[in-house]
Amino acid sequence: MTTVEQAEIRLSDGPRLHLRTAGPPGAPVTVVLLHGWVLDGRTWHRQVLPLAEEARVVTYDARGHGRSSSVERGSATLDQLGDDLAEVLRAVAPSGPVVLAGHSLGGMTIMEYAHRHPADFAARVGGLFFLSTTAEGHTHTVYGLPPRVAHLIRAAEMTGAQLLARLGGWRPHRALTLALRPSLRWLLFGHPCDPADVHLTTKAVARASLGSIGGFRPSVGAQARLETLAALPTVPAAVLVGERDRLTPPVCAVSIAQALPGAALTICPGAGHMLMLERPDVVTAALLGVVRAAADRHRRA
Protein backbone atom coordinates (compact mmCIF):
# COMPACT_ATOMS: atom_id res chain seq x y z
CA MET A 1 0.00 0.00 0.00
CA THR A 2 1.34 3.45 -0.93
CA THR A 3 1.89 5.77 2.00
CA VAL A 4 2.32 9.53 2.04
CA GLU A 5 5.25 10.72 4.13
CA GLN A 6 5.45 14.17 5.75
CA ALA A 7 8.70 16.14 5.91
CA GLU A 8 10.12 19.66 6.13
CA ILE A 9 12.96 21.49 4.43
CA ARG A 10 14.42 24.85 5.37
CA LEU A 11 15.03 27.34 2.58
CA SER A 12 18.26 29.29 2.37
CA ASP A 13 16.61 32.51 3.60
CA GLY A 14 15.03 30.80 6.59
CA PRO A 15 11.40 29.71 5.99
CA ARG A 16 10.39 26.09 6.50
CA LEU A 17 8.39 24.33 3.77
CA HIS A 18 6.09 21.43 4.59
CA LEU A 19 6.38 18.55 2.08
CA ARG A 20 4.50 15.36 1.33
CA THR A 21 6.11 12.56 -0.67
CA ALA A 22 4.77 9.29 -2.05
CA GLY A 23 5.90 6.60 -4.45
CA PRO A 24 9.22 4.80 -4.91
CA PRO A 25 12.38 6.92 -4.49
CA GLY A 26 13.91 5.14 -7.50
CA ALA A 27 11.03 5.89 -9.87
CA PRO A 28 12.06 7.04 -13.36
CA VAL A 29 10.23 10.38 -12.99
CA THR A 30 9.51 12.72 -10.07
CA VAL A 31 6.26 14.68 -10.22
CA VAL A 32 6.11 17.95 -8.28
CA LEU A 33 2.59 19.25 -7.65
CA LEU A 34 2.25 22.97 -6.90
CA HIS A 35 -0.94 24.38 -5.39
CA GLY A 36 -2.85 27.60 -5.94
CA TRP A 37 -2.87 30.94 -4.15
CA VAL A 38 -4.09 30.76 -0.50
CA LEU A 39 -4.49 26.97 -0.85
CA ASP A 40 -2.10 24.13 0.03
CA GLY A 41 -0.83 20.79 -1.21
CA ARG A 42 -3.87 18.89 0.05
CA THR A 43 -5.86 20.11 -2.96
CA TRP A 44 -3.97 17.48 -5.04
CA HIS A 45 -4.95 14.60 -2.73
CA ARG A 46 -6.98 12.77 -5.38
CA GLN A 47 -4.03 12.67 -7.79
CA VAL A 48 -1.23 11.65 -5.41
CA LEU A 49 -1.89 7.93 -4.99
CA PRO A 50 -2.64 7.14 -8.66
CA LEU A 51 0.51 9.01 -9.68
CA ALA A 52 2.56 7.23 -7.01
CA GLU A 53 1.94 3.92 -8.78
CA GLU A 54 4.21 5.11 -11.60
CA ALA A 55 6.30 8.00 -10.26
CA ARG A 56 7.70 9.62 -7.16
CA VAL A 57 5.30 12.38 -6.11
CA VAL A 58 6.18 15.53 -4.16
CA THR A 59 3.76 18.20 -2.99
CA TYR A 60 4.67 21.12 -0.79
CA ASP A 61 2.97 24.08 0.83
CA ALA A 62 4.41 27.32 -0.56
CA ARG A 63 5.79 29.87 1.88
CA GLY A 64 2.95 31.59 3.70
CA HIS A 65 0.54 28.75 2.91
CA GLY A 66 -0.67 25.62 4.68
CA ARG A 67 1.78 24.23 7.22
CA SER A 68 4.79 26.16 5.91
CA SER A 69 6.29 29.24 7.54
CA SER A 70 4.63 32.64 7.28
CA VAL A 71 5.84 34.92 4.52
CA GLU A 72 7.74 38.16 5.03
CA ARG A 73 6.18 41.06 3.17
CA GLY A 74 9.16 41.60 0.88
CA SER A 75 9.29 37.93 -0.14
CA ALA A 76 5.63 37.57 -1.17
CA THR A 77 6.45 37.60 -4.88
CA LEU A 78 6.39 35.24 -7.83
CA ASP A 79 10.14 35.81 -8.20
CA GLN A 80 10.64 34.31 -4.76
CA LEU A 81 8.32 31.36 -5.42
CA GLY A 82 10.26 30.56 -8.60
CA ASP A 83 13.50 30.57 -6.62
CA ASP A 84 11.86 28.41 -3.92
CA LEU A 85 10.92 25.82 -6.54
CA ALA A 86 14.53 25.69 -7.76
CA GLU A 87 15.65 25.10 -4.17
CA VAL A 88 13.02 22.41 -3.57
CA LEU A 89 14.13 20.52 -6.68
CA ARG A 90 17.77 20.60 -5.55
CA ALA A 91 16.75 19.26 -2.14
CA VAL A 92 14.21 16.56 -2.98
CA ALA A 93 14.85 15.63 -6.63
CA PRO A 94 18.54 16.34 -7.32
CA SER A 95 18.71 13.99 -10.31
CA GLY A 96 16.48 12.51 -12.98
CA PRO A 97 13.67 14.09 -14.98
CA VAL A 98 10.86 15.96 -13.25
CA VAL A 99 7.32 16.72 -14.33
CA LEU A 100 6.10 20.04 -12.95
CA ALA A 101 2.36 20.39 -12.44
CA GLY A 102 0.96 23.71 -11.27
CA HIS A 103 -2.55 24.84 -10.37
CA SER A 104 -3.24 28.59 -10.56
CA LEU A 105 -0.41 30.25 -8.56
CA GLY A 106 1.50 26.96 -8.86
CA GLY A 107 1.47 27.23 -12.65
CA MET A 108 2.70 30.81 -12.42
CA THR A 109 5.47 29.61 -10.09
CA ILE A 110 6.62 27.11 -12.73
CA MET A 111 6.74 29.87 -15.35
CA GLU A 112 8.78 32.05 -13.00
CA TYR A 113 11.19 29.18 -12.35
CA ALA A 114 11.59 28.74 -16.12
CA HIS A 115 12.23 32.47 -16.52
CA ARG A 116 14.72 32.84 -13.68
CA HIS A 117 16.51 29.47 -13.97
CA PRO A 118 16.46 28.60 -17.69
CA ALA A 119 19.52 26.33 -17.63
CA ASP A 120 18.21 24.31 -14.68
CA PHE A 121 14.80 24.12 -16.32
CA ALA A 122 16.19 22.82 -19.61
CA ALA A 123 18.35 20.24 -17.84
CA ARG A 124 15.71 18.90 -15.44
CA VAL A 125 12.17 19.33 -16.70
CA GLY A 126 10.79 16.42 -18.70
CA GLY A 127 7.11 17.41 -18.72
CA LEU A 128 4.73 20.27 -17.92
CA PHE A 129 1.16 20.36 -16.68
CA PHE A 130 -0.70 23.66 -16.33
CA LEU A 131 -4.05 23.57 -14.57
CA SER A 132 -6.41 26.55 -14.26
CA THR A 133 -3.62 29.11 -14.51
CA THR A 134 -2.47 32.08 -16.56
CA ALA A 135 0.66 33.60 -18.08
CA GLU A 136 -0.90 37.09 -18.23
CA GLY A 137 -1.61 38.10 -14.63
CA HIS A 138 -5.12 39.45 -14.12
CA THR A 139 -5.50 40.60 -17.75
CA HIS A 140 -8.45 38.26 -18.40
CA THR A 141 -9.88 38.01 -14.87
CA VAL A 142 -13.36 39.52 -14.73
CA TYR A 143 -14.85 37.08 -12.17
CA GLY A 144 -17.63 36.15 -14.62
CA LEU A 145 -19.00 39.70 -14.33
CA PRO A 146 -19.42 42.65 -16.74
CA PRO A 147 -15.99 44.29 -17.30
CA ARG A 148 -17.01 47.60 -15.71
CA VAL A 149 -18.13 45.86 -12.51
CA ALA A 150 -15.01 43.69 -12.53
CA HIS A 151 -12.83 46.80 -12.79
CA LEU A 152 -14.41 48.24 -9.63
CA ILE A 153 -14.01 44.96 -7.77
CA ARG A 154 -10.36 44.74 -8.79
CA ALA A 155 -9.66 48.26 -7.53
CA ALA A 156 -11.22 47.38 -4.16
CA GLU A 157 -9.36 44.07 -4.10
CA MET A 158 -5.98 45.74 -4.69
CA THR A 159 -6.64 48.26 -1.90
CA GLY A 160 -7.66 45.47 0.46
CA ALA A 161 -4.58 43.45 -0.50
CA GLN A 162 -2.30 46.31 0.58
CA LEU A 163 -3.96 46.32 4.01
CA LEU A 164 -3.80 42.54 4.41
CA ALA A 165 -0.13 42.45 3.38
CA ARG A 166 0.72 44.45 6.51
CA LEU A 167 -0.81 41.83 8.81
CA GLY A 168 2.02 39.31 8.33
CA GLY A 169 1.47 35.90 9.90
CA TRP A 170 -2.04 36.47 11.21
CA ARG A 171 -4.55 33.99 9.83
CA PRO A 172 -8.28 34.45 9.14
CA HIS A 173 -10.56 33.66 12.08
CA ARG A 174 -12.38 30.35 11.58
CA ALA A 175 -15.77 32.09 11.84
CA LEU A 176 -14.80 34.44 9.02
CA THR A 177 -13.74 31.66 6.70
CA LEU A 178 -16.94 29.76 7.36
CA ALA A 179 -18.90 32.89 6.51
CA LEU A 180 -16.92 33.16 3.26
CA ARG A 181 -17.73 29.60 2.21
CA PRO A 182 -20.68 30.53 -0.07
CA SER A 183 -18.52 33.16 -1.79
CA LEU A 184 -15.67 30.68 -2.25
CA ARG A 185 -18.16 28.19 -3.65
CA TRP A 186 -19.36 30.75 -6.21
CA LEU A 187 -15.89 32.03 -7.12
CA LEU A 188 -13.94 28.77 -7.32
CA PHE A 189 -16.34 25.99 -8.33
CA GLY A 190 -18.54 25.14 -11.29
CA HIS A 191 -21.21 22.43 -11.53
CA PRO A 192 -21.63 19.85 -10.15
CA CYS A 193 -19.83 20.56 -6.89
CA ASP A 194 -19.17 18.28 -3.90
CA PRO A 195 -19.65 20.09 -0.54
CA ALA A 196 -16.64 18.16 0.81
CA ASP A 197 -14.44 19.86 -1.79
CA VAL A 198 -15.72 23.29 -0.76
CA HIS A 199 -14.98 22.37 2.87
CA LEU A 200 -11.41 21.29 2.04
CA THR A 201 -10.82 24.48 0.07
CA THR A 202 -12.21 26.67 2.86
CA LYS A 203 -9.94 24.95 5.40
CA ALA A 204 -6.94 25.64 3.15
CA VAL A 205 -7.85 29.32 2.88
CA ALA A 206 -8.15 29.46 6.67
CA ARG A 207 -4.54 28.26 6.98
CA ALA A 208 -3.09 30.90 4.66
CA SER A 209 -1.68 33.91 6.46
CA LEU A 210 -3.25 37.31 5.80
CA GLY A 211 0.17 38.47 4.65
CA SER A 212 0.07 35.81 1.92
CA ILE A 213 -3.49 36.61 0.92
CA GLY A 214 -2.61 40.26 0.40
CA GLY A 215 1.11 40.16 -0.19
CA PHE A 216 1.18 38.07 -3.36
CA ARG A 217 -1.62 39.99 -5.10
CA PRO A 218 0.47 42.71 -6.85
CA SER A 219 2.98 40.20 -8.20
CA VAL A 220 0.26 37.86 -9.42
CA GLY A 221 -1.61 40.66 -11.17
CA ALA A 222 1.47 41.97 -12.97
CA GLN A 223 2.75 38.61 -14.25
CA ALA A 224 3.61 38.34 -17.99
CA ARG A 225 5.29 35.12 -19.13
CA LEU A 226 3.98 34.20 -22.61
CA GLU A 227 7.40 34.94 -24.13
CA THR A 228 9.04 32.68 -21.54
CA LEU A 229 6.71 29.83 -22.49
CA ALA A 230 7.33 30.31 -26.21
CA ALA A 231 11.09 29.98 -25.68
CA LEU A 232 10.94 26.74 -23.68
CA PRO A 233 12.30 23.46 -25.06
CA THR A 234 9.60 21.10 -26.33
CA VAL A 235 8.53 18.56 -23.69
CA PRO A 236 5.28 16.64 -23.15
CA ALA A 237 2.80 19.25 -21.94
CA ALA A 238 -0.90 19.60 -21.16
CA VAL A 239 -3.05 22.62 -20.32
CA LEU A 240 -6.44 22.18 -18.64
CA VAL A 241 -9.10 24.70 -17.64
CA GLY A 242 -12.72 24.72 -16.54
CA GLU A 243 -15.31 26.22 -18.86
CA ARG A 244 -16.74 28.24 -15.94
CA ASP A 245 -13.44 29.29 -14.37
CA ARG A 246 -14.00 32.83 -13.04
CA LEU A 247 -10.38 33.48 -12.06
CA THR A 248 -8.41 32.09 -15.00
CA PRO A 249 -11.01 31.72 -17.77
CA PRO A 250 -10.44 29.53 -20.84
CA VAL A 251 -8.81 32.38 -22.79
CA CYS A 252 -5.88 32.13 -20.34
CA ALA A 253 -5.39 28.44 -21.12
CA VAL A 254 -5.73 29.03 -24.85
CA SER A 255 -2.93 31.61 -24.81
CA ILE A 256 -0.68 29.27 -22.80
CA ALA A 257 -1.34 26.37 -25.18
CA GLN A 258 -0.63 28.58 -28.19
CA ALA A 259 2.65 29.80 -26.71
CA LEU A 260 3.89 26.48 -25.32
CA PRO A 261 5.35 24.20 -28.01
CA GLY A 262 3.31 21.02 -28.47
CA ALA A 263 0.91 21.54 -25.56
CA ALA A 264 -2.45 19.73 -25.55
CA LEU A 265 -5.43 21.85 -24.46
CA THR A 266 -8.50 20.53 -22.62
CA ILE A 267 -11.51 22.67 -21.62
CA CYS A 268 -13.76 20.87 -19.11
CA PRO A 269 -17.49 21.67 -19.58
CA GLY A 270 -19.25 23.07 -16.52
CA ALA A 271 -16.15 23.05 -14.31
CA GLY A 272 -14.70 25.97 -12.37
CA HIS A 273 -11.26 26.83 -11.00
CA MET A 274 -10.71 23.78 -8.76
CA LEU A 275 -10.38 21.22 -11.52
CA MET A 276 -8.31 18.66 -9.58
CA LEU A 277 -11.24 18.36 -7.16
CA GLU A 278 -14.12 18.91 -9.60
CA ARG A 279 -12.85 16.63 -12.40
CA PRO A 280 -10.30 14.39 -10.66
CA ASP A 281 -10.43 11.56 -13.19
CA VAL A 282 -9.86 13.91 -16.14
CA VAL A 283 -6.98 15.67 -14.39
CA THR A 284 -5.35 12.42 -13.22
CA ALA A 285 -5.58 10.82 -16.67
CA ALA A 286 -4.07 13.88 -18.37
CA LEU A 287 -1.30 14.13 -15.80
CA LEU A 288 -0.48 10.43 -16.11
CA GLY A 289 -0.26 10.93 -19.87
CA VAL A 290 2.40 13.60 -19.41
CA VAL A 291 4.28 11.47 -16.84
CA ARG A 292 4.33 8.43 -19.12
CA ALA A 293 5.46 10.48 -22.10
CA ALA A 294 8.24 12.02 -20.01
CA ALA A 295 9.36 8.59 -18.77
CA ASP A 296 9.34 7.31 -22.38
CA ARG A 297 11.52 10.19 -23.54
CA HIS A 298 13.92 9.59 -20.67
CA ARG A 299 14.25 5.86 -21.48
CA ARG A 300 14.90 6.61 -25.17
CA ALA A 301 17.50 9.20 -24.28
Automatic annotation (TrEMBL):
Keywords: Hydrolase
Gene3D superfamilies for this protein: alpha/beta hydrolase
Segments forming domain AB hydrolase-1: 31-285
Pfam families referenced in this protein's UniProt entry, alphabetically: Abhydrolase_6 (PF12697)
Gene Ontology MF annotations: hydrolase activity
PANTHER family: AB HYDROLASE SUPERFAMILY PROTEIN YCLE, MONOACYLGLYCEROL LIPASE
Protein name (database record): Alpha/beta hydrolase
Source organism of this protein record: Phytohabitans maris
